[in-house]
Prior knowledge:
Helix content is 40%, strand content 17%.
Amino acid sequence: MERLVSPKTTKEIVNKYGFKFSKSLGQNFLIDENILYKIVDGAEVDKEDIVIEVGPGIGTLTQVLAERAKKVIAIEIDKTLLPILSETLGDQENVEVINEDVLKLDIHKLIEEKCEGKAVKVIANLPYYVTTPIIMKFLEERVPLKNMVVMIQKEVADRMQAEPKTKEYGSLSVAVQYYSEPQIITKVPRSVFIPQPKVESTVIRLRVLQEPRVQVKDEKILFSIVRAAFGKRRKTLLNALSNSPLQVDKEILKKVLENSGIEGNRRGETLTIEEFAKIADTFCESL
Length: 287
Ligand code: SAM
């Protein structure tokens, strides 16, 4: 099968099957070879790798992944793409297409059954409407991952990689950096997709850490504190935490911050993950 990654071949295959792009499923297909190879090279795919691709679309990225990897498991929600995928990937024996919503899949079971129980690489041009839930599912469920290389909305990638004291830094930055080391590979203009999305994109690599960046007594408490601190960005840390779903008396929170060595008049966006962890552990001790 000829390479799909061109406006001409993509339009031909879409027209042949009378395929209608679904905006609500985030269907923007890649038509630029340069970006395609930046994704695949960024993930350093080789013949040892088993790759999970989320949303193969018509199989543009899948074709190249199949050439480079040992095996590709492609999870596609839209069943109208299945006949197209069986044509475009027909001669690739190491590809398996699964017609499912990735958010509803038991990924651990999938890895046990189809990926020899080994750590996988997740590589995808993700649908914009569910980028964060998909990425967080893989990270929070502690799926055995070598790395993730995904194309996502530029603003979301910037937030994932953001450092403290920047306007992009927020609970998503802390959550992603807790589990991984994000690195932006390249920015991507709107013109490399059919149809063109309204937003610009970025290819980002998340190198998953062996252990979370900080060790805490209770992860749930850590993330409740992080969410509370960023929930009211303009308030001081003490005020943000005391007017939050944590529902803890202001005097107790004052003591927690004091015992953590963190001033209550700082704002959440100035705190490092290590500082959030310190507050979370001191908070646990005070319960
Ligand atoms: N990989 C193709 C490419 O690069 O041209 C298509 C990428 S397109 C941005 C996103 C793909 O994800 C679409 O094929 C869409 O149908 C699929 N998709 C959307 N939501 C999904 C979900 N929850 N689970 C699995 N696939 C999904």
